């Protein structure tokens, strides 16, 4: 079993390494490339992932890595790091100050540690399996909102699905906004999950996410006492794509709202 204190210090060192380059990039005009018409990538996404991977490989050269920009290496390894070097790229590229770095660490497919850093607000969210979740070292607890009718929710819309009326999330958005206090769309799924963990949001759902969007955040929500499942209430895995995260109390109502 890997010493998680060492994993934590590597996660924190990786954040320290790339934070300045992300903040410097936010203040200047960037070179933007397009993976497709809607999916942007900046030079900062690429540089951030390179920096994070270098720090991890210095300490744990045999570990697997799954990064949004670099793909998967050493897929047979017992330990794997799942990295979103910049979650909220569209916000970042438009100078909208809401984005983060997200790093999850798994052993044999089970999340053990996650760290998410918001460089604008200097907020670091962390969780270790079985040991709770924290924000800048202070323990986190999900909200106690008992009913969907009193809930503040959050969601996102996968650009790749915008032309598919059945799967583009608009029908679910339409159902939810009639049932709750309000719905936010921030543009960073990883931070959305952190805000479920702080209790500012009561629930979050999204369809069509990738493993790096939810790895660290799903552990942070669970360790803050929340519930994280697939759309039908079954266990969430990084391959699920769909995620429903909540304070647990409103979870059954969220799942029934998402039923076809
Ligand atoms: C995106 C953000 C966004 C979500 C998208 C993701 P990226 O990640 O998390 O909130 O709605 O589905 O792809 O591309 O900024 O890393
Ligand atoms: Ca992402
Ligand atoms: Ca990203």
From TrEMBL:
Keywords, sorted A to Z: Hydrolase, Magnesium, Metal-binding
Q: Which GO terms describe its molecular function?
A: inositol monophosphate 1-phosphatase activity; metal ion binding
EC number assigned by the record: 3.1.3.25
Catalyzed chemical reaction(s): a myo-inositol phosphate + H2O = myo-inositol + phosphate
Q: Which InterPro entries does the annotation name?
A: IMPase, Inositol_monoP_metal-BS, Inositol_monophosphatase-like, Inositol_monophosphatase_CS
Look at the named UniProt entry and state the broad enzyme category this protein falls under: hydrolase
What residues does Mg(2+) bind to? Answer: 68, 84, 86-87, 213
GO BP field: inositol metabolic process; phosphatidylinositol phosphate biosynthetic process; signal transduction
The record's annotation in PROSITE patterns points to:
IMP_1, IMP_2
Q: Which domain of life is it from?
A: Bacteria
Q: Which cofactor does it need?
A: Mg(2+)
**UniProt similarity note:** Belongs to the inositol monophosphatase superfamily.
This chain's protein is named Inositol-1-monophosphatase
Q: Which organism is it from?
A: Leptospirillum ferrooxidans (strain C2-3)
Q: What taxonomic ancestry is recorded?
A: Bacteria, Pseudomonadati, Nitrospirota, Nitrospiria, Nitrospirales
């Amino acid at each position: 079993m890997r010493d998680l204190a060492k994993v934590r210090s590597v996660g924190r060192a990786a954040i320290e390494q790339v934070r300045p380059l992300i903040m410097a990039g936010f203040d200047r005009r960037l070179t933007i490339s397009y993976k497709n018409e809607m999916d942007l990538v900046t030079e900062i996404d690429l540089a951030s992932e390179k920096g994070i991977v270098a720090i991890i490989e210095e300490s744990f050269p045999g570990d697997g890595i799954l990064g949004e920009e670099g793909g998967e290496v050493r897929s047979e390894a017992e330990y794997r790091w799942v990295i979103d070097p910049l979650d909220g790229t569209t916000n970042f590229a438009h100078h909208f100050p809401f984005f983060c770095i997200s790093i999850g660490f798994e052993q044999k497919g089970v999340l053990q540690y996650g760290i998410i850093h918001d460089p604008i607000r200097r907020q670091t969210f962390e969780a270790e399996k079985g040991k709770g979740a924290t924000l800048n070292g202070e323990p986190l607890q999900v909200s106690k909102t008992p009913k969907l009718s009193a809930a503040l929710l959050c969601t996102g819309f996968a650009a790749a699905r915008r032309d598919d009326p059945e799967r583009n999330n608009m029908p679910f958005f339409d159902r939810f906004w009639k049932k709750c206090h309000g719905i936010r769309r921030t543009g960073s799924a990883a931070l959305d999950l952190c805000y479920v963990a702080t209790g500012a949001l009561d629930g979050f759902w999204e369809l069509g996410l990738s493993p790096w969007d939810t790895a660290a955040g799903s552990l942070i929500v669970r360790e803050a006492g929340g519930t994280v499942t697939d759309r039908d209430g079954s266990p969430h895995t990084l391959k699920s794509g769909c995620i429903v995260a909540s304070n647990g109390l409103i979870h059954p109502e969220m799942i029934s709202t998402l039923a076809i």
